[in-house]
Amino acid sequence: MIPDSFIQDLLARVDIVDLVDSYVPLKKAGANYAACCPFHNEKSPSFTVSPTKQFYHCFGCGAHGTAISFVMEYQGLGFVDAVKELAQRAGMQVPESDRRGFHDEKPGQTRTLIDVMARAAQYYKDQLKRSPRAIEYCKKRGLTGEVAARFGMGYAPDGWQNLQEVFSDYNADELKIAGLVIENEAGRRYDRFRDRLMIPIINQKGEIIAFGGRIIDQGEPKYLNSPETPLFEKGRELFGLPQARQALRETDTAIVTEGYMDVIALAQNGVGNAVATLGTATTATHVTKLLRQVDRIVFCFDGDNAGRKAAWRALENSLEALADNKRLGFIFLPQEHDPDSYIREFGKEQFDRQVAQAMPLSDFLLRELAQRCDLTSSEGKAQLIYEAKPLLLKLPTPLLRLQLVKRLAEASGFAQQEVERLCDLRSYTPAAPPKATRSAPSLTRNLLRIVLQKPALARLLPLDLLPDTAERPALVLLNKLVSAQPDVPSYAYLREQIRGLPEASLVERFASELLDRPFDEAEAEAEFVATLERLREGDQKRAFAELQIRVQKLGVAGLTAEEKQSYIRILTERSNRS
């Protein structure tokens, strides 16, 4: 776990204007900076970056966050990886990093392994230029020099120890740890990749973490990937994701294929938003990573039994990562084709049509379940619900789940309520109307705006006076967060502290409203004091009204000693004011 103090120091060190400008050119717009939003297509700028508050907000799509959020969304990284990326940019060392299962990794080893992989990649690229046979193979596959350069392709020559040309110490531990060499039982080393077209596997930071090797002409295995290493976990990585980043934003769709040659062939023919899994079934991590960048994923598989099985595994592993605003689709190509051969024979337009008409997840799920059950019998209909239950329970999307339940009810002959009960799903009931607030919410709205302008004031919030309004939970949370820090934290730090909490969306909305408002510290403090005074007056009025009701019912003698003192004090104060 990364300490909060490090997050605060990191956000203080990184200037969000410089960060965003390195990805998206910004233009000065008053006190802020503006650009066309990098997270959705637009013609006029609605994306604003605040240098004073160190956050961004898009008035078009609602994207909002700090420097960490920007790196997460733009590069599709998780929180820890985004922090590491920013720390490296700022020249800071993350105190505690995620080893991802490789606990025996030595300090500084990651950097060494990345350097080793980069040197090997350069060697393979040089060898491709010198190999007429490998060049002829690329031409036969229809690959141009431009696409080969885009994907950093190379060639591993035939032979046992060619990497000795690059690494003088062929017995160095790093070569084995990186998966470049294999050591046999006798202790003799040899190159893992021989006589193969070499395709680097690149992470989101542009670093080479593994290789895929395609055999030239005939041989087994046809495709050979690097083993899992401290740099590379195949269940987490997707081939071609860095190269596809721009096309993903433009299309809002990711096409997932089974092989890296499919991705390269699609890119060669103008389809740049394709990625591939690396010798493993699609995982929930793959899906989560893609859904950070797009709203739609289309899985493209062969139409044979193996392709349908792979599609079903992808469906099962995707369910938990879905949201109601995200969509999955499935393409099943003719059995004699894969994406590479299909687009070369039929062209980009026909392939794009396949993507547009991809079978929705709900149709594929119900079709596959129906094929497993005999829906002409009672037993088959019962089996349909039995098979559907674990899938429905995985779905976190209430709207899609409701639609599936309705269609399952139609197919099985059960009532919708019966399907919900048999699958242990709670029926949808409208939310209860919100409770009436005890006082005008404008006062707490005003307090929240002031506190977001000057977080130090959150320490002075009288929590017992705050009425039960929509803003109260956010104010209480900000009071707690600011009071826990010896120094006054920035808005950016507070935003990271409430990431994922229910209060985050409300805070984001109020913060965005402040983007174009001038801020005067003295005026903010005066307004804060005045607002608290109005809260106190309102609280006193409510207390007096409650006491008057008790006096009317019980008389003054019926009040407790404390209530009598309060009643007399309020009467005296009112008399003095008049």
Describe the protein.
49% of the residues lie in helices and 12% in strands. The protein folds into five domains: 4-90, DNA Primase, Chain A (Alpha-Beta Complex), CATH 3.90.580; 109-225, DNA primase, catalytic core, N-terminal domain (DNA primase DNAg catalytic core, N-terminal domain, Alpha-Beta Complex); 241-365, Dna Topoisomerase Vi A Subunit, Chain: A, domain 2, CATH 3.40.1360; 373-422; 442-573, DNAb Helicase, Chain A (Orthogonal Bundle), CATH 1.10.860. It has helices at residues 4-13, 16-23, 67-75, 79-90, 109-129, 132-140, 145-150, 173-177, 241-251, 260-268, 284-291, 305-318, 339-356, 361-372, 378-394, 398-412, 416-422, 442-453, 472-483, 491-497, 504-513, 521-554, 561-577; strands spanning 27-29, 32-35, 47-50, 55-58, 64-65, 154-156, 181-183, 189-191, 196-202, 208-215, 223-225, 253-257, 274-276, 296-302, 327-333, 359-360. With 578 residues, it is α+β, with helices and mostly antiparallel strands. The longest helix is centred in the C-terminal third of the chain and has 34 residues, at 521-554. Mean pLDDT is 85; it is low at 97-105 and 428-441.
